[in-house]
Structure formats: structure tokens, C-alpha cells
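B., you asked whether I could sanity-check this one before it goes into the benchmark set. Here's the sequence:
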Amino acid sequence: MDIKKIALYIVVVFVLYTIITSPARSAELVQVGFEGISTAAQGVGDFMTQLVN
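And here's what the prediction gave me:
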């Protein structure tokens, strides 16, 4: 349990450090992430539509 907390803190600190040192790059990464999620959701929606038809 403690190892998970430590790992979570390390990830949070890394993310905050990245945002503070390079906000433009961080914004690009977030945009890419959301585009990927959107594309995946659209693909699932298309698959379900085809499955129903």
C-alpha cells in the first residue's frame, strides 16, 4: 500500500514539474491525449452502430 502511495506522489510531482517547466509542451500532450480518447470513443461508437445495423 505504501509503495502505491509513493509511486502516486512521484507521478504527481513529475506532472507538476513538467507543467511548470514547459506549459506549452504540456498543453500539446494533453491535447494529443484527448484527441486519442475522442478517436477511440468514436471508433467504439461506430462499431456499436454497425453492430446494431
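One thing to flag: The chain is about 95% helix and 0% strand. Otherwise nothing jumped out at me.
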